[in-house]
Amino acid sequence: MKQKITPFFMFNGTAEAAIHFYLSIFRNSELVTIHRYGSEGPGPEGSVNHAIFKLYGTEYMAIDNSNAVDIPLTPATSFVIHCETLAEIEYLYESLSEHGRILMPLSEMPPVAERFCWIQDKFGVCWQLNLPLLR
Known about the structure:
With 135 residues, the protein is of the alpha/beta class.
């Protein structure tokens, strides 16, 4: 069955950089398609009109905001990643927190998780990383 819900990001001019960053750190990832604005706009020429990409096999979409006003992302919405190993959660923690903001540091969280953290990355996207207690 085809995925019925697709997370959609609107970045303020950083869509392509964010997509390539995520593709570089998440396994089973690919850029499916990317379309850019031309000189006719409405966004700045070369900015992302529409992109589809996959992270861990899940499809996402992204655009660059073509409005004159920046619209910030918020920690009220986050993406939870269930990690399989301690090495995986530590790698993602280091990668996503670089130049970002740590909302909850990587720590033990019994009885729910062996390790857990909450990060807002350098593009403003929030991630909750979880290493389940019972694997």
